[in-house]
Amino acid sequence: MGSRHRGQGLRNRLVKPSGTNPQQLCTPCEDGTYTYQSLGYRCSSCIQCVGALVHFKDCTPKSNTQCRCKEGLRCGDAGCTFCVDECGKGEEPTKKRDCRPCPKGTFNDQIHQDCKSFSTSYGRWSRLQSLGP
């Protein structure tokens, strides 16, 4: 069986850039901290999911806690650091992170999408019908 190195399977933080003793170069991230960088000098504190954010995956030495949004809300960014209202059919998301009804002459038949013009959509449908059987 091969030898196991200190911190194997864990993410270590760099203590000093060079030296003769590998055990003194790096130390594992402590509980409640993580680092994405294999040669980083510090570990970051794991986030806590609060408010509309609910816990999804535990923090590990290699990755931060992952949160998701409560039902009826959706992540407001790729990292899911905040939640926004999930807009239903007949609504569209706004820049203010809420929902508004589709303006006159538009519709939305999908969840959390922009409203589309009836004339544009109807025009496509008309072309499809004319190409039909």
Automatic annotation (TrEMBL):
MF terms in GO: signaling receptor activity
Coiled coil, from the record: none
TNFR-Cys repeats mapped onto the chain: 28-67
Key words, A-Z: Disulfide bond
Biological process, per Gene Ontology: regulation of cell population proliferation
Disulphide bridges: C46-C59, C49-C67
Domain TNFR-Cys: 28-67
InterPro entries xref list: TNFR/NGFR_Cys_rich_reg
This protein's name: Tumor necrosis factor receptor superfamily member 9-like
Annotated organism of origin: Poecilia reticulata (Guppy)
